[in-house]
């Protein structure tokens, strides 16, 4: 798809922004009347927003906001606690250290926040380094939490615009809400299935469930091309081919946003082009500009053309664009490349500001630098008070131009009003059979033969399922799925099917395995001696159901390897 859709969006949004900036005083010298001096004080009633175009509604609301409200709208921290107003003593202590208040609701009120991210842990999670706490447990709890957060935000002067509640629901190894929801296979599995329609249907199902729980912003899909042997990106990527990844990204965006949840393309301009982990260090991208333009940027362009409402900037040193400057703080990258070259006019969100590369500056200075570079939303500042105070001081001394802040807030509010009129699905959708089928169809289409014939994947007689250390839950899931598919599973003596997964090495393989199956990235299979090698590209329960169907002979392993594996030449099994 060409750049015409992006151009049309650029013209429309730019016109509104120009009008807003003119009203705000484009020279930056005109001071907007300040909001009440006490950060926690809200106006008696939020200004009514006119019906109609989201950008026009945003412009009207921005014109009513004081300095404190403008600053708060560009902050999206995390908080401690599984409830908005009732938290444990430990969570209260964590919130006081983070923001000087005890509860998430108090944090929203004090800092006039534009949004909040829900955080949590998951198995094999490469992002665990910046997950300081968890506030997701089950759908009912999440729904109660989001209801409380929206109630607190509704009392703010900007409360007529929906509060942004986001999370990292990528599916696969980075999945914040794992229980009681439809689990999709990983992005790499979707890349192996190589059918954007299946991807769109699965992500629409997932988006519907997120919306039912009160989440309206997903930090997904990952648009990174897996150009290196990365352990931080790995199966979070749709694959190594920019063209195939682009098609998958477009499908995921259409699915999520069709369900009323904003999609976020990440990690711009492409974390898959480095094997380093930006949670702990500043990865360096040494590729030429031509390589980046042809190998890293196409999925982001495809996501933008599919209508993505947000892009996440990455903590990457892109030497071909702005050497030595983390991308989060690079105006050349975010304003010149993302806005100018790719034509993106939605919301640019930083990656977590509690990650090592962003913490090279104090929280207030980091927030100002990020906003001046072209970000519109500051995600997970390590200290909310310092970030808020730093932005407010910079606004008033001119180091953060008022026009830049007004532009950012207008974009954030435009996104909110785009989400405003979407109907909220019932919680009963979380048990919808249609959602389950969409996930199963995608997972089944991903199963790939990497060694052996296309028919050798079918097992005969009883099966013994084994797995590398720490994968008992996945082994049990495959055992259950095989039994349901009519295959007899025995503790020993059967055809050995051995599972390996994220981070495993040669020592985790089994020399006597008849079939070795790689979940997530399959690098370890290069050293496997089994006559039959399969890949599911994902360890999700639904992927074990798809694998069981192939082993039982009820489905064909029609997946196409989304990435090369050294020493293995996969056959092409007919679909």
Automatic annotation (TrEMBL):
* Pfam entry (one): Glyco_hydro_3
What GO terms describe the biological role, i.e. biological process, of this protein? carbohydrate metabolic process; peptidoglycan turnover
| Entries under SUPFAM superfamilies matching the protein | (Trans)glycosidases (SSF51445)
Q: Give yes or no: UniProt keyword GTP-binding.
A: no
* Cleavable signal peptide: 1-25
- InterPro entries associated with the record: GH (IPR017853), Glyco_hydro_3_AS (IPR019800), Glyco_hydro_3_N (IPR001764), Glyco_hydro_3_N_sf (IPR036962), NagZ_Beta-hexosaminidase (IPR050226)
EC supergroup of this enzyme: hydrolase
Any one GO MF annotation of this record: beta-N-acetylhexosaminidase activity
Tell me its family: Belongs to the glycosyl hydrolase 3 family.
Name this polypeptide is given: beta-N-acetylhexosaminidase
Recite the lineage of the species.
Bacteria, Bacillati, Actinomycetota, Actinomycetes, Micromonosporales
């Amino acid at each position: 798809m060409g750049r015409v859709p992006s151009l049309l969006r650029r013209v429309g949004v730019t016109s509104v922004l120009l009008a807003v900036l003119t009203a705000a005083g484009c020279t930056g010298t005109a001071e907007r009347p300040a909001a009440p001096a006490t950060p926690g004080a809200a106006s008696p009633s939020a200004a009514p927003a006119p019906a109609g175009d989201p950008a026009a509604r945003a412009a009207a609301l921005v014109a009513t906001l004081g300095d404190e409200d403008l600053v708060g709208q560009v902050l999206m921290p995390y908080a401690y606690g599984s409830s908005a107003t009732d938290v444990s003593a430990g969570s209260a202590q964590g919130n006081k250290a983070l923001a000087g208040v005890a509860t998430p609701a108090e944090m929203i009120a004090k800092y006039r926040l534009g949004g909040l991210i829900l955080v949590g842990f998951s198995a094999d999670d490469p992002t665990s380094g910046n997950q300081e706490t968890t506030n997701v447990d089950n759908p009912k709890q999440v729904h109660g939490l989001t209801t409380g957060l929206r109630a607190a935000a509704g009392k703010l002067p900007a409360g007529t615009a929906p509060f942004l509640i986001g999370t990292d629901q990528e599916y696969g190894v980075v999945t914040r809400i794992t229980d009681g929801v439809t689990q999709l296979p990983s992005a790499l599995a979707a890349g192996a299935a190589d059918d954007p329609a299946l991807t769109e249907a699965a992500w629409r199902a997932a988006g519907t469930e997120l919306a039912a729980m009160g989440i309206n912003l997903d930090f997904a899909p990952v648009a990174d091309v897996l150009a290196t042997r990365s352990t931080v990106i790995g199966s979070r990527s749709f694959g190594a081919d920019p063209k195939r990844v682009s098609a998958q990204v477009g499908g995921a965006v259409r699915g999520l946003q069709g369900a009323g949840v904003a999609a976020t393309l990440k990690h711009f301009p492409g974390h898959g082009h480095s094997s380093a982990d930006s949670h702990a260090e500043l990865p360096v991208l040494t590729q030429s500009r031509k390589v980046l333009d042809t190998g890293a940027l196409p999925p982001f362009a495809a996501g933008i053309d599919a209508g993505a409402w947000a892009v996440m900037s990455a903590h990457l040193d892109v030497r071909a664009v702005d050497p030595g400057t983390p991308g989060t703080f690079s105006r050349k990258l975010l304003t010149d490349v993302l806005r100018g070259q790719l034509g993106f006019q939605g919301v640019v969100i930083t990656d977590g500001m509690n990650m090592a590369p962003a913490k090279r500056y104090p929280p207030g200075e980091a927030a100002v630098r990020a906003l001046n570079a072209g970000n519109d939303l500051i995600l997970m500042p390590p200290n909310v008070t310092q970030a808020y105070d730093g932005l407010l001081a910079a606004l008033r001394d001119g180091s953060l131009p008022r026009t830049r802040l007004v532009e950012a807030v207008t974009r954030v509010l435009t996104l909110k009003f785009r989400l405003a009129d979407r109907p909220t699905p019932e919680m009963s959708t979380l048990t919808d059979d249609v959602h389950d089928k969409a996930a199963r169809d995608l997972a089944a289409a991903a199963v790939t033969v990497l060694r052996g014939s296309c028919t050798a994947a079918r097992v005969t007689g009883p099966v013994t399922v084994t797995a590398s250390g720490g994968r008992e839950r996945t082994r049990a899931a495959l055992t259950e799925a095989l039994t349901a598919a009519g295959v007899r599973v025995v503790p020993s003596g059967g055809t050995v099917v051995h599972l390996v997964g994220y981070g495993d090495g040669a020592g985790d393989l089994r020399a006597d395995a008849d079939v070795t199956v790689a979940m997530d990235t399959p690098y370890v299979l290069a050293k496997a001696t089994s006559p039959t090698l399969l890949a599911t590209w994902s360890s999700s329960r639904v992927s074990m159901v798809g694998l069981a169907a192939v082993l039982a002979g009820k489905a064909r392993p029609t997946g196409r390897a989304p990435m090369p594996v050294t020493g293995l030449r996969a056959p092409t099994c007919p679909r």
